[in-house]
Design goal:
Helix 6 (115-131) links the parallel strand 4 (106-109) and strand 5 (137-140). The longest helix is centred in the last third of the chain and has 46 residues, at 299-344. The chain is of the alpha/beta class. It has helices at residues 5-10, 12-22, 24-41, 58-71, 83-91, 115-131, 153-174, 181-206, 214-239, 243-253, 255-258, 270-276, 280-293, 299-344, 354-365, and strands spanning 49-54, 75-80, 98-100, 106-109, 137-140. It has 15 helices and five strands. It has a five-stranded mixed beta sheet, sandwiched between helices.
Length: 367
């Protein structure tokens, strides 16, 4: 038996080089997760957080201007004529708090929009009321469901659906690599149906994250999951073992941090606030909030975001199909020589080299 590439790959030095080269991926994941999560969440501070002061007289104007000046950019304060207008702004998520001054001051918030934003607003106006020597009454105009008291259950549902989706990408792209792309795409759509159904069970009967609108939530979860799976399956054709890192960057590092599920853009650095306007996780979180708590206000824009990501997945899968179709004739020709050698050899079946087996295993697990 000759000492060829297999022996070299199986030597201690070769094995060490192989392990070290593959450690690059988890180290990049570590760096990326640290930069994304700590950059987005480590020091939330309000900036341009929209609030209303109810009243049209000079005192309301002075209070609004004082808050604006003292906030140094933290708040964006305006006056509105009456309570009904302030409540409407909260319903349309055009503001995140409304202060009604007087002998019995009251603060209107909508915790379903963002519990952390409501908390930040409450902290500001509790101090204002204390300066006037009066306790502050807080009225929640859009409370969350009983099963989601913090309002962050939708974010953790996003995490569960995302993990189910991009983990399925590794299986379909790796273990299913020998299948035609149209079969892999069909598997992706089927997996998205299962993942979204699991998400709906979590949100409804199991944990009660929402108390109505479950069918709409499921539909958005499917559109979101299908977009991730189609993009991942398409990327696998081009990125191969780097696909796992690619989908983690897209659908974990940049996605969870910009979704608004924990902190809205008004409490985050500008980069993540900018992503919030068009990233698919934000489309899902804000779409579910709109559908369940705010009467469908701005739902169309969030559905458009999810639909565009789904279309991007279809386009990327189509491009992958064209690339694989171009590669297939060359691969078929390359397979002729080993097949002829195997048929001519008299010493039993030819087995793939250890190096080839190892590569196939790496593809199967998506690393």
């Amino acid at each position: 038996m000759s000492a060829g590439p297999s022996a070299a790959a199986g030597s201690p030095a070769g094995a060490l080089r192989h392990v070290l080269s593959h450690l690059v991926t988890p180290l990049l994941m570590c760096i990326g997760m640290g930069l994304a999560y700590l950059g987005a969440f480590h020091a939330p501070q309000p900036h341009d957080l929209r609030v209303d002061v109810v009243g049209s007289g000079p005192s309301a104007q002075v209070l609004a201007q004082t808050l604006q000046d003292k906030g140094d950019g933290a708040l964006s304060v305006r006056t509105v004529a009456d309570r009904a207008t302030a409540a409407e702004h909260l319903r349309t998520q055009d503001s995140y708090g409304a202060y009604i001054p007087g002998r019995a001051p009251e603060l209107l918030v909508a915790s379903a929009s963002s519990d952390t934003s409501a908390t930040a607003v409450e902290k500001v106006f509790t101090q204002v009321a204390a300066g006037q020597g009066a306790p502050l009454k807080v009225t929640d105009t859009a409370p969350t469901a009983d099963g989601d008291p913090t309002g962050q259950g939708i974010f953790f549902l996003l995490v569960a659906v995302s993990i189910g989706s991009y983990a399925s990408v590794a299986v379909i792209g790796g273990a299913g690599a020998v299948l035609r792309l149209r079969v892999r795409a069909a598997l992706a759509l089927g997996a998205s149906l299962v993942v979204s159904a699991i998400g709906a069970v979590f949100a409804g009967p199991l944990f009660g994250l929402v108390d109505h609108g479950l069918a709409g939530l499921w539909a958005m979860a499917w559109l979101y999951s299908a977009g991730i799976l189609l993009i991942g399956v398409g990327l696998h054709t081009f990125l191969k073992r780097w696909t796992t890192l690619g989908v983690m960057v897209l659908f974990v590092m940049l996605n969870f941090t910009s979704s608004g599920g924990i902190f809205r853009p008004e409490l985050q650095p500008g980069f993540f606030g900018a992503l919030h306007s068009f990233w698919n996780g934000a489309g899902f979180v804000e779409g579910v909030r709109s559908h369940v708590y705010f009467g469908g206000h701005a739902l169309g824009g969030n559905l458009l975001v999810l639909a565009l990501w789904f279309v991007a997945g279809m386009v990327l899968t189509g491009l992958a199909g064209l690339a694989e179709a171009r590669r297939r004739p060359a691969a078929d020709l390359a397979a002729v020589a080993p097949a002829a050698t195997a048929s001519a050899a008299s010493a039993g079946p030819v087995r793939p080299s250890a190096e080839k087996e190892e590569e196939e295993m790496e593809e199967a697990v998506g690393v």
